[in-house]
User: What shape does this take?
Amino acid sequence: MLEKDKYILVFGSKPNSKIPLIEVSNIYAANGASEIGAYYKKFYPEIEVDFYCGW
Assistant: This one.
């Protein structure tokens, strides 16, 4: 198991959150936090990012 496979990130929409720039296996983001997930993907393009939107 690789080190990156031990971690996932879940982004919320809290403003001014600190984002760790570490390599992870997956990212989950919902609603307003989808912007943060897309920004993070610029640093690690091979990471899978799942975006969720609620009604």
The chain has a mean pLDDT of 83.
